[in-house]
Specification:
heterodimer, A: alpha/beta, 8-stranded mixed beta sheet, 13 helices, 31% helix, B: mainly alpha, MetI-like fold, 0% strand
Chain lengths: 378, 325
């Protein structure tokens, strides 16, 4: 089964960050939201450690998927990188330029190269502006006059994202969720960005529309060579879209690697648990001996509070392999033996390097399996 | 399986998520078949929330009635001589307290002045005070409130405490104290007093709606583009925060008119020989048993005016309330 999944050499080149030129690199990125309390004079009584020491790199034209459950700091990381939030610590480097604390004017050239797509297509478009002026505004703010005028460029963008250019003068409330998200994509593309931070771009959409928007993003990425930081909690979508995947838990990256390596050979227990939670669709084919399905790893308890995260490894409170060492020593994010190049894991007691050792079937896309079966037969 | 990267795409398509690049049939259809602005058919004219609100308002009887009343009031305060030939200051004591008679439909008040003429001329004072005070309150209140809501922090805390202090001042008592020391007999001290005590109400509304509007992703999106503060506020926040301010200001206009009448009644607002409904009500109240008409007409005009503005505010709120859309 997994032999069939070993993929051609092509993924070696896209999946390995060292071979691609680094576009964005993030080191030790930290964001603590202060909590104020006390009377009559308010003072800082604590901090929500939303993001606590995240390291990431995104290569030119590469798509990095950032996954994790709700509240683990994925969106905060995205907003820190687009500098919508001011980092508490760490470094953000874009094309070798440190933009961690750059001011608005210094940031201006970078702003046009890093764009964002938002989760909620209903709140991300100004209801008082027409589609034309929404998509035009990035060019206005940055004083860019494309050849043929801004309006022509807007119409081209509308066409590119699969909308009718005649809808230039419509207002957002006249569109469906999927169409609105396309408008958001067009706005992000208006300045020919090099990197798009997509913050759960499809999770607010209907499943049938999700695929359309994901495919649109994929097309944009393939044709325009734009790098993506693709934040999502839907593992199937990330697998479809991303070259590399980073898994976050409670403000930290616990595992990062190229897509196949993460999906087929996860080492961190949390990644195992996440992957085992992907719903399985049974395909009625004549396959033999696969009726029993996968075993799901159930995590008990809640995600600990980011105000008081556990000492040492943050996952230890829910980990079935946790030992004393996990409470005292924080595991570094390193390449552990048996991992493919560039696959880093932060765990003292990683799971085995292959999925077989888990004794489970890890096929995530039953339809894919069915396709392969039929390919084998031919 | 020729290419590893495209494998999963087919897989997703296979599980039922249609993976075409074109618009879904449903999506395209809804757009084409959607009726245009007039419900006549496809149209490409821009249709904003404001024009939607206007469409609702035009069909709202409450709006139509109150707007007609207000229009009439504005017209007679601009050209009172169009419907009355007399002067409000020409009085004949020999006719004091007389009832309705030919040429004087509302009768005469205690000083023998024509009640009809005085009621008509009184509208000018009320409308002028109401409109000017509302303008002042709206500008001052919404600018301060919007700044507090947008920048937050210390500025916001200071402003919130100041508004709390102003809310603690009783309006009528404050008016008696502050206005009794002013001798000028124009509408300006009254307007100034109303603005002074009225702006905190508007600034609270403006602050709240700016805070709501600035959390929207489209404001974040504009910030991510590097938009300046003024662009963020003027293009993105203000247009989405202004509706509640307009509604509250419209309703407040009615209450400011009645506040002017109250202050004039108490003798600290406008004083004779100015013409104001409040003055007339005050002057007529000692003779209520002998000449109730002298009290009734200015009171009725005042009540109708205040009601019209409050109803207008209600109708506008219903039309603008996004939760009903």
């Amino acid at each position: 089964m997994s032999e069939n999944l070993t993929l051609p050499a092509q993924q070696g080149s896209t999946g390995n960050p060292s071979s691609a030129e680094t576009l964005l690199s993030v080191e030790g990125l930290t964001k603590h939201f202060p909590i104020y309390g006390g009377f009559p004079i308010k003072r800082k009584v604590g901090a929500v450690q939303a993001v606590d020491g995240v390291d990431l790199t995104v290569g030119v034209g590469e798509s990095l998927g950032l996954v994790g459950e709700s509240g683990c700091g994925k969106s905060t990381t995205g907003r820190l990188i687009t500098r919508l939030l001011e980092p508490t610590g760490g470094r953000i480097t874009y094309k070798g330029q440190d933009i961690t604390h750059a001011r608005r004017r210094q940031l201006a050239p970078v702003r046009s190269e890093i764009q964002m797509i938002f989760q909620d297509p209903y709140s991300s478009l100004n209801p008082r502006q027409t589609v034309g002026s929404i998509i035009k505004s990035p060019m206005e703010v940055n004083g860019i006059d494309p050849a043929g005028g801004r309006e022509k460029k807007v119409r081209e963008l509308l066409e590119l994202v699969g909308l009718n250019p005649e809808h230039y003068n419509r207002f957002p409330h006249e569109f469906s969720g999927g169409q609105r998200q396309r408008i958001g994509v067009a706005r992000a593309l208006a300045l020919n960005p090099k990197l798009i931070v997509a913050d759960e771009p499809v999770s607010a959409l209907d499943v049938s529309i999700q695929a359309q928007v994901v495919n649109l993003l994929k097309k944009v990425q393939d044709e325009l060579g734009i790098a993506f930081l693709f934040i999502a909690h839907d593992l199937a979508v990330v697998r479809h879209f991303s070259h590399r995947v980073a898994v976050m838990y409670l403000g930290k990256v616990v595992e990062v690697g190229d897509r196949e390596s993460i999906y087929n050979g996860p080492r961190h227990p949390y990644t195992h648990a996440l992957l085992s939670a992907v719903p399985e669709v049974k395909v009625a084919d004549e396959g033999e001996g696969e009726g029993e399905g996968r075993e799901r790893i159930r995590l008990y308890g809640d995600v600990p509070s980011p105000i008081m995260p556990p000492s040492g490894c943050r996952f230890r409170t829910r980990c079935w392999k946790a030992q004393d060492k996990c409470a005292t020593e924080e595991p570094p994010l390193v390449q552990i033996s048996g991992n493919r190049d560039g696959h880093l894991t932060a765990c003292h007691f990683p799971e085995g390097p292959t999925t077989e050792s888990r004794g489970e079937d890890v096929v995530l896309d039953p339809a894919l399996k069915a396709l392969e079966k039929s390919a084998e037969k031919d | 399986m020729p290419d590893g990267r495209h494998e999963p795409e087919q897989a997703i398509a296979g599980t039922g998520m249609g993976g075409t690049m074109d618009l879904g049939v449903d999506e395209a259809e809804t757009l084409e078949k959607r009726p245009g602005p007039d419900g006549t058919g496809p149209g490409d004219r821009p249709r904003s929330l404001w024009s939607d609100a206007w469409r609702d308002l035009r069909r709202d009887p409450v709006f139509i009635v109150s707007a007609l009343v207000i229009l009439f009031l504005v017209l007679i305060s601009l050209w009172p001589s169009a419907i009355t030939s007399g002067s409000p200051l020409t009085c004949d004591l020999s006719k004091a307290q007389q009832g309705s008679q030919s040429g004087h439909p509302f009768g005469f008040d205690g000083q023998g002045c024509d009640v009809y003429t005085r009621t008509v001329y009184g509208a000018r004072t009320s409308v002028a005070v109401g409109v000017l005070a509302t303008l002042g309150v709206s500008v001052l209140g919404s600018v301060l409130g919007a700044l507090a809501g947008y920048f937050g922090g210390v500025w916001d805390s200071v402003l919130s405490r100041i508004t709390d202090v102003f809310f603690a001042i009783p309006v009528v008592l404050g008016g008696l104290v502050l206005l009794s020391v002013i001798t000028s007999n124009t509408i300006w001290p009254v307007i100034g007093f109303i603005v002074l005590l009225g702006w905190p109400q508007l600034s609270r509304i403006a602050r709240g709606s700016v805070i709501t509007a600035k959390q929207n992703d489209y404001v974040q999106a504009a910030r991510a583009l590097g938009a300046s503060h003024s662009r963020l506020v003027l293009r993105h926040i203000a247009p989405n925060a202004v509706a509640p301010v307009i509604v509250v200001a419209t309703i407040a206009l009615g209450t400011y008119i009645s506040l002017e009448a109250t202050l004039s009644y108490l003798g600290v607002g406008l004083k004779p020989p100015s013409v104001s409904w409040g003055i007339d009500i005050s002057a007529a109240s000692p003779y209520i048993r002998n000449a109730p008409h002298a009290l009734l007409w200015p009171s009725g005009a005042l009540a109708l005016t205040v009601l019209a503005f409050i109803m207008l505010g209600d109708a506008v709120r219903d039309a603008l309330d996004p939760k009903l859309r």
